[in-house]
Amino acid sequence: MPLLARTHPRLSAAATFGLAVGILAPADSIISKILIGWNTGVWTYLVLMLWLTMRAKAPDVKRIAEVEDENAGLVLLLVSIAALASLATITFELAGSRDLETTGKLLRYGVTALTVIGSWLLIGVIFSVHYARLYYTWDGKEPALRFAEGLTTPNYWDFLYFSFTIGVAVQTADVGVATRDLRKIVLAQSLIGFVFNTAILGFSINIAAGLFG
């Protein structure tokens, strides 16, 4: 944990805060506590990363990428698994909403929407951070990613653009992928994006049926 806190301070702080809130939340079920803690941690991390993205220049991105190089693959794997697990948790939460009054249903539907959106954004952000790390720690002759207009010092906005294009459209648009390692990561994100897009459609139908059925 000390190593993770040193290499990924924002993620560690958000996870610790979310865990504390989840444990202390006055919810009547373990599923609700998990979702409250998860949403707290996820949205805290997203706010921290938004603040970093707005302030960081290309040299800052390179410096952070070098610090985060250690155990970065494990962090990406664990966060991706946790985000996918949050979708399964929502299924249990929705299953228990059938016998609730309208207010209770709306509250659970709101938590569902918040969780899905937060987890989807988290995947896009965590992959963009990983792309930045791979780009700036790559020691090949040519850049690992080829951005339009010959950009060689991309910042977080550029990596977010690349990552969320994959998440939304499952394609890399105008950015070329030049290494096999990066192609593996892009493939993994594409598959995760497909799962999320399918889940969003399924949850939307479920919620609509619950409200108007």
What does this molecule look like?
This protein has 213 residues and is mainly α. The protein has one domain (58-212): Helix Hairpins. It contains eight helices and two strands, in the order ααααααβαβα. A two-stranded antiparallel ribbon has the order 1-2. It is globular and about 60 Å long.
Low-confidence stretches: none
For this structure, the CATH topology is Helix Hairpins
Using only C-alpha atoms, the radius of gyration works out to 19 Å
Average predicted confidence as pLDDT: 87
Biggest β-sheet description: 2 strands, antiparallel
**SSE topology string:** HHHHHHEHEH
For the largest beta sheet, what order do the strands appear in spatially? 1-2
- Write down the overall geometry: globular
Report strand %. under 5%
Q: Give the end-to-end Cα distance, rounded to a whole number of Å.
A: 47 Å
| Percent helix range | over 70%
SS class: mainly alpha
- From the 3D coordinates, which CATH architecture would you assign? Orthogonal Bundle
> What is the oligomeric state here?
single chain
CATH class reads Mainly Alpha
How many extended strands?
2
How many separate domains make up the residues? 1
Number of helices: 8
